[in-house]
């Protein structure tokens, strides 16, 4: 039996309405269909169209709720797993993050907009590289932006694989250590959240304080290797290296300790006579400051790291400052150190004995002393000026002064990049 097209039917030979219909139009069509198929003219106890539409809506809601429940359960499982993976029993505070650690911890505050603004172009007239804001200024005139690095406190060239190590200033989150590859690629975070960071003069080793422990590791190609650790008293921090041993400053007036990290734990006793350390001679002895003489006063000494920094030669004479600022030349002949007054002193370590030969050497050291291979000491004074201490000129009676560095914005301070010492 053939079917006669109904003008109200949507299934005609030529569709009278478009296929792209709204939900309201579908519901209205469904109600019309049910209404035509109902034989009884009286009102129904329940509207079949409403029941069908309600069932469909409830099915959609149940599916949506089921999806939300599954998503919530997955979120809880992932969060719980992350919490378990991130838990480190026995640690307090924010731990230092080492390269390769899967946790995402902010390395340090990013440079401000003013730091990221390139300094005015111009030659940086210094024998060593400088970091100005977030820019590396080579002594040959080359310039490179250190994206994501800063604010910077220290920088050190790395032997063998090249590049440099950059240490941040202390922040509420701790200190950050970056490795800047020599090929121009982006800097890499080696440490984040460390309490203190110390580098070997050749850049091949790094030591840091994290929580209750002191750590040390070798550094090759931007990777920390052979990491060792030892418990340390509260406030004890690494300050340098003597060969493979780490020099650790004890809190307060507790002196210094030598940690032979490849041989055992931190010794329980310290050399309390040592007040400061300035560097290491080519023969491995440490140049430091001790309390000696009668009456007791700060004097210079050569210390034996194999015997816990016991003094092997001491020399008194000039009045020395006790802030620990100073540095030893690569050949081990000269020491630039702060005096008790407002200036620095150039000390001939070859004369270290019962007396010390020292010459006035210009403004006081406020940060790192960086020696060049030609025997010139560089440092930045309190006003951000560069001070050159040329040994031969100081011996001839010259009093070095501070000179401004090209390209440094007002109020900023350049950071010297120390060269490697083999």
Automatic annotation (TrEMBL):
Which residue intervals make up region (Disordered)?
A: 400-422
List the transmembrane segments. Answer: 64-85
For this protein, the record's SUPFAM superfamilies field holds: Tricorn protease N-terminal domain
KW Membrane (keyword) present: yes
Where on the tree of life does the source sit, at the highest rank? Bacteria
Q: Which UniProt keywords apply?
A: Membrane, Transmembrane, Transmembrane helix
Record protein name field: Uncharacterized protein
> Per the UniProt entry, what species is this protein from, by scientific name?
Micromonospora kangleipakensis
């Amino acid at each position: 039996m053939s079917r006669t097209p109904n003008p109200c039917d949507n299934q005609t030979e030529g569709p009278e309405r478009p296929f792209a219909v709204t939900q309201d139009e579908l519901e209205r069509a469904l109600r019309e269909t049910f209404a035509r198929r109902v034989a009884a003219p009286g009102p129904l106890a329940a509207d079949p169209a409403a029941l069908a539409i309600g069932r469909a809506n409830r099915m959609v809601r149940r599916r949506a709720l089921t999806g939300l429940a599954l998503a919530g359960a997955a979120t809880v499982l992932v969060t719980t797993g992350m919490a378990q993976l991130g838990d480190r029993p026995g640690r307090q505070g924010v731990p230092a993050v080492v390269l390769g650690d899967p946790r995402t911890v902010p390395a340090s505050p990013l440079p401000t907009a003013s730091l990221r603004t390139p300094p005015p172009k111009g030659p940086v007239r210094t024998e060593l590289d400088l970091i100005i804001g977030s820019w590396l200024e080579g002594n040959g005139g080359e310039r490179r932006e250190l994206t994501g690095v800063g604010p910077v406190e220290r920088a050190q060239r790395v032997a063998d694989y090249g590049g440099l190590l950059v240490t941040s200033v202390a922040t509420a989150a701790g200190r950050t250590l970056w490795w800047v590859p020599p090929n121009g690629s982006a800097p890499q975070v080696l440490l984040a959240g460390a309490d203190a960071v110390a580098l070997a003069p050749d850049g091949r080793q790094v030591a840091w304080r994290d929580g209750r422990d002191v750590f040390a590791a070798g550094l090759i190609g931007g990777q920390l290797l052979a990491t060792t650790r030892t418990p340390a008293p509260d406030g004890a921090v690494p300050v340098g290296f003597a060969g493979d041993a780490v020099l650790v400053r004890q809190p307060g007036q507790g002196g210094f300790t030598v940690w032979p990290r490849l041989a055992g734990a931190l010794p329980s006793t310290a050399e309390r006579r040592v007040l400061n350390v300035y560097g290491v001679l080519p023969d491995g002895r440490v140049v430091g400051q001790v309390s000696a003489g009668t009456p007791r006063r700060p004097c210079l000494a050569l210390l034996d790291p194999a015997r816990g920094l016991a003094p092997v030669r001491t020399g008194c004479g000039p009045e020395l400052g006790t802030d620990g600022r100073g540095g030893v030349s690569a050949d081990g002949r000269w020491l630039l150190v702060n005096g008790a007054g407002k200036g620095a002193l150039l000390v001939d370590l070859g004369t270290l004995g019962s007396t010390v030969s020292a010459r006035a050497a210009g403004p006081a050291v406020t940060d790192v002393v960086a020696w060049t291979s030609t025997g010139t000491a560089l440092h930045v004074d309190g006003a951000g000026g560069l001070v050159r201490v040329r040994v031969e000129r100081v011996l001839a009676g010259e009093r070095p002064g501070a000179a401004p560095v090209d390209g440094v914005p007002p109020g900023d301070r350049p950071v010297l990049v120390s060269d490697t010492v083999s």
